[in-house]
Write a structure and sequence with these properties.
heterodimer; A: alpha+beta; globular; B: 218 residues; mainly alpha
Chain lengths: 235, 218
């Protein structure tokens, strides 16, 4: 400024404040309007989205335990007992017991998650204590390759694996007699094996791993405590 | 971009022209070759292609209209930042909207919705058209470009789903004996299909131009 001398500086500086003000006004104005719009959209859609999520989970519980009429959420206590969930449970381990129209326990739906090919896969599976088997399976969330890995959610032959997947406990009651294992398509010979999907081996293996780890955790805990769930079906 | 400049010069463009140019003559994907990231990434099934096309259409129309309406109060120096702010907000709102309407569709589109923010068709139309034209003309331009984008995605999605999965909109077409052409569903298949459509589109355009020239000489 001083280099230009007194005469040159004043005309050069004069437009500056008037040019800066519209820029700041425009940016701040747009920022405020956009901020308000986003918060409003979030607030307006949140209850709907939360309701839809809960509905999707409920619908999935009924799908993985065929014949279910009602369901109830249970929480795993530190003592190992299962108690009905009251209100919201932050961080608690939850399972969903399902009952038929007469209130008899059909089974327990369990949520499990693990790493897939690209991102976490979240699944829900139904365990029927009377048959000591997994009797239903649904993918809740997946970002597997569309057209390949995402077949874990729709391929009928793959889903047939989970109509009677053996998860009986071993004699020591601490682990599964036969951990779930993945075999090539068409090579399934045992009740605890899963036939992979051709062209989606990675995603099939991810599902098998998720189920193996989840059943290894839950089966020894649920199996001796099945009585905890029976009362929940009473009207 | 040369075609865009020509429209500006060639007298008074009509409302139909504002709309129709995006569908065919200035198709954002096949002529301007913009927005190729979603074009390649989400067209492995026809359903995904339509969902992505419609989500982009909504954002494009809304952003064109908003940017045209604020074009006189936004100084030139901060226009790109302002446009991005408007577009990013719209995409966030559309993202919540899709979740509220259908979790299934949101599940299918996954990370790609956020990528609409940086879809160059939207910023391109904001800069090349909406910032210089009226709200109504920008709306029509957005609709035309959006539908042009949607149709192109559908063209790719149909070819890739039919050949790669033997189905269309999830409905099996060929029965159990059909061997899926799996590569078409993978990202590389997107390039092949895109290249094939570009080849076809340009061949057709050249043929039409040659016929028109031949007809005029006679």
């Amino acid at each position: 400024m001083s280099a230009n001398g007194a005469g040159g500086a004043a005309p050069a500086m004069a437009p500056a404040p008037s040019a800066a003000w519209p820029m700041i006004r425009a940016m701040v104005g747009i920022g405020v309007v956009c901020g308000v719009a986003i918060v409003a959209a979030f607030q307006l859609t949140r209850p709907v989205i939360e309701r839809k999520r809960a509905e999707a989970l409920r619908a999935a519980v009924f799908q993985v335990l065929p014949g279910a009429a009602t369901s109830r959420t249970y929480k795993l206590e530190e003592s190992g007992a299962f108690t009905p969930l009251e209100g919201k449970a932050e961080g608690a381990r939850l399972v969903y017991a399902a009952y038929d129209a007469e209130g008899r326990l059909l089974g327990v739906a369990i949520e499990a998650a693990g790493m897939g090919y690209q991102d976490t896969i979240r699944v829900l599976y139904g365990y029927a204590p009377e048959r000591r088997a997994v009797v239903g399976f649904r993918v809740l969330e997946t970002r597997e390759t569309p057209g390949l890995g995402d077949k874990i959610d729709v391929d009928p032959e793959f889903l047939a694996n989970f109509e009677a997947l053996d998860v009986a406990l071993a004699d020591d009651r601490q682990s599964l007699a036969h951990p779930i294992e993945l075999v090539k398509k068409g090579e399934k010979t045992q009740k605890w094996q899963i036939d992979a999907i051709t062209g989606a081996t990675v995603s099939s293996r991810a599902v098998a791993n998720i189920l193996r780890e989840s059943t290894a955790f839950w089966m020894p805990r649920i199996e001796p405590r099945v009585e905890d769930f029976r009362a929940g079906g009473a009207p | 971009m040369s075609t865009l400049v020509q429209i500006g010069k060639s007298g008074e463009p009509t409302a139909t022209d504002d709309f129709l140019k995006g569908l065919w003559r200035d198709n954002p994907v096949l002529v301007q070759v913009l927005g190729t990231c979603p074009t390649l990434a989400v067209t492995n099934t026809a359903r995904n292609a339509i969902a992505m096309g419609l989500a982009t259409l909504v954002v494009l129309v809304a952003s064109n209209a908003l940017i045209a309406s604020i074009r006189k109060i936004v100084p030139k120096q901060v226009r790109i930042a302002s446009y991005i702010l408007v577009i990013a907000s719209l995409v966030t709102i559309v993202d919540y909207g899709i979740q509220a309407i259908s979790l299934e569709v949101h599940k299918a589109l996954g990370a790609f919705i956020a990528l609409i923010v940086v879809n160059c068709i939207i910023l391109g139309r904001a800069e090349a058209f909406a910032s210089k034209n009226t709200v109504v003309r920008s709306l029509l331009d957005g609709l035309g470009m959006g539908f042009g984008f949607c149709i192109t995605l559908l063209l790719l999605g149909v070819v890739r789903e039919v050949l790669g999965s033997g189905a269309l909109f999830g409905v099996e077409l060929f029965g159990p004996r059909f061997q899926d052409w799996v590569i078409l569903v993978l990202p590389s298949g997107g390039f092949f299909t895109f290249a094939a459509w570009l080849l076809f589109f340009n061949w057709w355009k050249q043929r039409r131009a040659a016929r028109a020239a031949g007809g005029g000489a006679r």
